[in-house]
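In this supplementary section we document a worked example of the pipeline. Step one takes a protein sequence of length 95 as its only input; no multiple sequence alignment statistics are reported here. Step two produces a three-dimensional model, which step three serialises into structure tokens for compact storage. The input and output of this example are shown verbatim.
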Amino acid sequence: MGDSKVPSKQLYQRLRLHTDYLSEFLRELRKESFGDALDKYFKLGSNLNQRDTIAVRKMVSGMLKLLYPDGDFSKEEVREVLTFALEMRRRVKAA
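The serialised model returned by step three reads:
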């Protein structure tokens, strides 16, 4: 059982490769914006000021990128992300 262990150096090299790949993937996603998905299905109300609107749009865009990096999401999926983003913004303002 002890003979099947992966040597530490090899394990760290594998981990580094995965980390490098993930960081490159996330860096490339920064170039994309999914904020338009919000406009496609919903309109934010006038009860949000400009700062709130910007924050919610950025949260929605970021979460959609992480959850649906291929850009394929439904109206219901955007609604779930928007609901979460609005709740998070409400909590920030309440704190």
